[in-house]
Amino acid sequence: MYITQHTDYALRALIYLGTNDDRLVTIQEIAERFDVSRNHLMKVVNALIRAGFVEGVRGKGGGLRLARAPREIGVGDVLRQMEPGMDLVECFADGCQCILDPSCRLKVALSDALAAFLKVLDGKTLADLLGKSEHAILKFHPLPG
Amino acid sequence: MYITQHTDYALRALIYLGTNDDRLVTIQEIAERFDVSRNHLMKVVNALIRAGFVEGVRGKGGGLRLARAPREIGVGDVLRQMEPGMDLVECFADGCQCILDPSCRLKVALSDALAAFLKVLDGKTLADLLGKSEHAILKFHPLPG
What we know:
The structure is a homodimer.
Chain A: H1 5-19, H2 27-34, H3 38-50, E1 54-57, E2 63-66, H4 75-82, H5 105-122, H6 126-129, H7 133-138
Helix pairs in contact in A: 1-3, 1-4, 2-3, 4-5
């Protein structure tokens, strides 16, 4: 069972921005901190900006910051906005050809399970994900150069 | 968010076997019914046999059948046995290098959500997934030839 890397990076970028909320953060910095490709992260950040979680400040000394307070960023909401699909299995998508589809109870069971999954995350905000991770930030090794 | 195709096919194969419980079913038949590759399905069926959900009867007229009553096959259990990993994101796996890892609350939130997901499926057995799908089976078009 997987969440896409796209969403994984989106959540980590939000945690990073939420922890470094006293300044603007560059994409380059997040990419280096998490050791991910800058190009990939750019797509993630653009999606976060489009969804209204992050805002970018242009120009010299510019960078990224959260567009809302951490307590106003629901984790379930981030997942829903970032995941390209919540189609757990083929039959969740349009145009399914499965012979069981018309009356399949598997789909219902998986939908119920997914709802329970999201309900837990809907009970959490980015603020809940911060806190202790500030300690982790303090332990970061300084970037070279 | 995805469940692997491997698990998707495993669940469908179990539903098919549970619905056709009055006879032995061949891999060929399931592959044709669901329009999936016989080779792929063979791997799925072997995994179902290894996990003790399905048994194979060799020889002429042989085929597959459920190894246990449908009410004794938990859907959550099938998922746990069939999914190659329950590592929702990179940091669930061993050897994670994420800088947030030592005190990341995201991991805890996702673990809680996954537990809620599986709890719903632990409350269902294959017997719960059958029932109505018997009607769907009745509506199947006969295979050519």
